[in-house]
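For practice. Any example?
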Amino acid sequence: MNKNPTEKSVTFAHQTDNAEPSPAPASVEVDVKSDGHNAEERDQIEDPSSRPDSSIVKVSEEIDRFLSILSSVKYKSNPPEIPDSVEKFVKLVEAEIAKYDSGKAPTKWCQVSEQDSSLLEAVDRISKLTNLLREFSSESEYASSHNRTSTVLQRAMSFLVEEFRSLLEDSDSAATNLRTKHPSLSSDHCVLPEPEPSGEANFPAYSPEVVSNMNRIATSIISAGNETECYQAYSIARRNAIHESLKKLGFQKTSIEDVQKMEWEFLEREITTWINAFKQCVTVYFSGERKLCEAVFLDYLSISGSLFSNLTRGVVIEILNFAEAVTMTKRSAEKLFKYLDMYETLRDLIPVTDEIFSEEYAHELTSEASSVRCRLGEACVGIFSDLEKSIKSDTGKTPVPGGAVHPLTRYTMNYLKYACEYKDTLEQIFQEHQKIEQSDHNEETGKGAKASPFSIQLMTVMDLLGSNLEAKSILYKDLSLSYIFLMNNDWYIMQKIKGSTEIHDLMGATWCRKRSSDVRQHHKNYQRETWNKVLGCLKDEGLQVNGKVSKVVLKERFKSFNAMFDEIHKTQSSWVVSDEQLQSELKVSISAVMIPAYRSFLGRFRQYLDGGRQGEKYIKYQPEDIETFIDELFNGNPASIARRRT
């Protein structure tokens, strides 16, 4: 098949080394290399719509002259003729707003946009024009123009309010809209700042450019007399933003009824969340909101203060309502520590609000927060009152096996130990809430000062516990065991006090010395009740008859000693002294009395029983055996000497 001659010559021309390229293609190739933008980009960059319409600028000058003339008219009945430029200007503004609404505007509140400024200036002129035309509305021509400008102004306000709301709801809205509507625009055409990572440190996360644009729009809306719509849009958007931030922290508005229905485990977690949320509000959110409000309404600072107060007041009320609802739940001892955490949060953060809020609002906030804090304090005082009642009502008739530390003692002392970690706070609470009555507790703390209200409360609880333990000791039929029980519990109490500087300081040196003396007395009573009878078997009195040692009496002495010691070992091996130091001191004190006495008695009188079986029958223990068996006492393990020997 023959090819077209023209096609053949073109093909040949491109394949020939000496052939010169045609001028047209060469021109196109050079043009492409010299321009970094494609044709579409170049058209968009050179689009005159990306700059303020020159016709608006020209007509605006005419409108300014007309406004100047109109404002200087003294007699309302003789106004000047309305120039054609008014209708032309209204149409241009209307078209510009329609272009923004339709999304055909090249930018939407960009970082530096002449067109945005031009639109806002045009809206301001429409606003002034509307106000002046209203003054001459008795003239039909002016009434018609007034209706026309009012309609356009209202549309402009609706657009600006919506744009204002959009900027508030999304700090990146300008960049998002620009990229969505004009993805091919280069960054050189409209430089947008990279959005900063959102977080607590830069709350609320608006760029300076966005804040500046919000200020310009808000000023335009307020100047046109639409401040109510502007304030509502701002308040709703920012309130939603704060609520969303609190929601991310886990805190949401909860009714009093819902709080009261919560299980404690769940409510405990909610309180932790509440504390964190309140701290964030006072230290981060509120200060950020105040700065934003002042920046957006820079020309209306008195209004911004009121707006900020109204905005944050609703949030504060929600936060305080939760705390108040917590105080209305049923009291229980386990809630004390979370109540104290909430009390401290309110106490420590409320003074910070003085730096954030106006004096009037800060006073109102302080009053409301103090009221809630007071109720939390009353709940804490009530819990201690409940603790007193629970100690009094613990009247169980079953003694603790082995004379061990009673569960009531462990619970009470551990509870007080943890409570005293809040010593300063509890001192403050009881100072504020508890009426101090003169009583036997109004004694010296050991430092020359009268006991504080919380010290008195602590002593009251300790005395009630002591009385309860005394009553429980009577439940033991064995008097020696009752002394072991009292010794165990008093020792445990003293060790807890020694281990807590806070409790020790609150109880005072005088009280601590008295309780230590009680422990020593219980120790003496135990030794007297248990070992004095045994020691009686090792006395010389009554052994001699007619100046000679009576073997019969001596045998009875050894038999009595063996029987008593066997019984003590069998019984008291099952008794409990769990504290190693106390147990060691007890055994040492027993050994210090028994072993020397037995060794001496055995050394002086065993010769009268020497002689094979007779000696083995009555001399059952060597001094070393006595020491071994004493060491087996108070281990909580029932044992018998017979079983040990098998």
